[in-house]
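Annex B. Sample input.
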Amino acid sequence: MRVITIFMAALKLGLTSFGGPIAHLGYFYDEYVKRRKWIDDKTYGDLVALCQFLPGPTSSQVGIGIGFIRGGMIGGIGAWLGFTLPSALFLLTFAYIVEVFHLYESGWMKGLKLVAVAIVAQAVWEMAKKLTPDRFRITIATAVAVITLLVPSPFVQLFLLLISGLIGVVYLQPKLGHVSSTLSLTLSKKGGIISFACFFLLLGLFPLLHSVTESKWIAMLDSFYRAGSLVFGGGHVVLPLLEKELVPAWMSHEQFLAGYGAAQAVPGPLFTFASYVGTVTGGWLGGVFATIAIFLPSFFLVFGALPFWQSLRQNRRIQALFNGVNAGVVGILLAALYNPIWTTSIVSTWHFTIALICFILLVYWKWPAWFVVVAAALAGEVFLSS
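Annex B, continued. Sample output.
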């Protein structure tokens, strides 16, 4: 019964949590800490700090952690399933509709492509303010963006993130104060090591299998598991990682960006964009497969890191590593904003006008993302229908 309670609480959040990961954390605090009192403020703060430290979808990882604290491994799975299911089902259904009726050239679909421009521009804007607050990190981000544009390859992106992290270790070590609080968990360090071992084993195994087999399912598993393992900075960074691998080999730019725009209109985690992509490329089974693959690393990382979090928080080199990586992430996202998003979406004055208005509404008027998505779809239908 406890697992059902965890699932229903998470399902409520999955149906109502609009606004992205920062907003999700606010909803989680109200529901899990203030209303249900499942954990206290200190534990919640520590859990949020841990998940922001890890690659992957922060809000989903916090939900998994809370579910684990409340109901063990099954509780963590129940919390993830409840929070993820609504948006995953919507995007799977959306993919079916646009594929069956060939709606990619409709006006409202063009509007979804344009709102994707505004949303990624907003992500770059907000992330740059937090993650590149000085000239040194701005320079790292700019260099990464330039090299990414000149040498478009997912392997180059990973190499650049590694170099950014090493630069951070040398030049960006923070001044850390005393950390007094700890997470109240019973997960053993042995269990954490096993979880980390599974994470790295699969991260190396899937590319190897992909190289020796022509299976579409192995290729999909490799792409989405790697994306879920290496994304720092939030769900928006999934875009450049997946785009380099899936477009145009598996789907068109129009299909890719339309789904990305639609993902902004639903509550829950942005990583359920994988549900849309998987459905377009492999039917409903592909949607389920891709969704599980992109979230699977989050379970391994959260369960692996929890027992070691106290020592990780106080390691200046680890903190410096991620200062550099985060600057590199801004550069990769900046490059993705130009190519493919801008170059494939902004082709006329009307296109630029709609995208600019969407950006202003998001950044300065603070309109909810789902409302701006709906407005952009309507604008596209009115002004861009052919």
